[in-house]
Amino acid sequence: DAFPYCLLEEKNKEIVGGGCSAGVSLCEIDGKGNLKICSGFLQPVGNIFEESLEEIWQENEIIEKYRNLEMNISDYCIECNEFKNCLGGCRASSNVGDVLLKHRK
């Protein structure tokens, strides 16, 4: 999982690794062909039985917004010194707001 680095102790930052790979190098496809950005993203962004995986991956507007970090990143994250390392943590959880981050100010 991708966690915001500001929530981690220094010793755990290497274990967690980098930012979220959703829409960049991973996705989830269920048995009905529904493609989701990741397992934590509830809404399918396409269906491989209706259009090709390549079309969905390269042309889907929602995936593109996640890929370009244009969705639901708080100003707190963007202004953080660690942002370049963690990219704000899990992209899917960013849809519920900054439940944990609001307590870090």
Which keywords apply here?
single chain; 105 residues; alpha+beta; three-stranded antiparallel sheet
| Molecular shape | elongated
Mean pLDDT rating: 81
Q: Which sequence of SSEs, written as H and E, runs from N to C?
A: HEEEHHHH
Number of strands: 3
Fraction in beta strands: 5-15%
SSE layout:
Layout: H1 13-16, E1 28-29, E2 34-36, E3 46-47, H2 53-59, H3 61-67, H4 75-78, H5 83-86
Antiparallel strand pairs: 1-2, 2-3
Overview of the molecule:
The protein has 105 residues and is an alpha+beta fold. It has one domain (5-93). Helix content is 25%, strand content 7%. The protein has five helices and three strands. A three-stranded antiparallel sheet has the order 1-2-3, with no helix packed on it. The longest helix is centred in the middle third of the chain and has 7 residues, at 53-59. The radius of gyration is 15 Å and the shape is elongated. The chain starts with 12 loop residues before the first helix and ends in a 19-residue tail after the last helix. The relative contact order is 0.23.
Brief write-up:
The protein is an alpha+beta fold and 105 residues long.
